[in-house]
């Protein structure tokens, strides 16, 4: 087993690596001309990397949901993927709904400003 300090150190290392990946991803997607696709790719990467889920059914420890879903799929079969895959997909769906609503609101406010 591991100590609480090792658990926190693991999360700090993961957070630092995630930050570095997202900064790199930001620059890699900067050349995409279609702004909506560029923003969507950035948000999908960010949400996919930061959603946590429980490591075990009776555990209090969390890990990134994509890692838990992948490990469950490899070692327990495809049906076990959904234990951590469901919250990950729900978080991605919530992000898509929020972005869509913000785009709709932005469209109507921009349209109202151009009418006046």
Helix/strand order, N-terminal first: HHEEHH
State the distance separating the first and last CA atoms.
Answer: 65 Å
**What is the number of helical segments per DSSP (H or I, 4+ residues)?**
4
β-strand amount? 5-15%
**Strand arrangement across the biggest beta sheet:** 1-2
Indicate the topology:
Layout: H1 4-28, H2 35-50, E1 52-54, E2 62-64, H3 65-76, H4 82-115
Antiparallel strand pairs: 1-2
Keyphrases for this structure?
116 residues, 4 helices, elongated, mainly alpha, two-stranded antiparallel ribbon, single chain
Structure description:
This protein has 116 residues and is mainly alpha-helical. α2 (35-50) packs antiparallel against α4 (82-115). It is 75% helix and 5% strand. A hairpin with a 7-residue loop joins β1 (52-54) and β2. The protein has four helices and two strands. It has helices at 4-28, 35-50, 65-76, 82-115; strands at residues 52-54, 62-64. A two-stranded antiparallel ribbon has the order 1-2. The longest helix has 34 residues, at 82-115. The protein has one domain.
Short description:
Helix content is 75%, strand content 5%.
């Amino acid at each position: 087993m591991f100590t609480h300090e090792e658990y926190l150190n693991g999360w700090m290392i993961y957070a630092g690596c995630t930050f570095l990946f997202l900064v790199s991803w930001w620059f890699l997607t900067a050349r995409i001309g279609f702004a909506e696709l560029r923003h969507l790719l950035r948000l999908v990467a960010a949400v996919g990397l930061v959603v946590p889920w429980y490591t075990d059914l009776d555990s209090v420890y969390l890990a990134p949901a994509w890692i838990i879903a992948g490990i469950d799929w490899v070692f327990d079969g495809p049906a076990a993927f959904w234990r951590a895959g469901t919250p990950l997909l729900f978080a991605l769906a919530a992000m898509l709904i929020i972005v869509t609503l913000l785009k709709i609101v932005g469209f109507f406010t921009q349209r109202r400003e151009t009418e006046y």
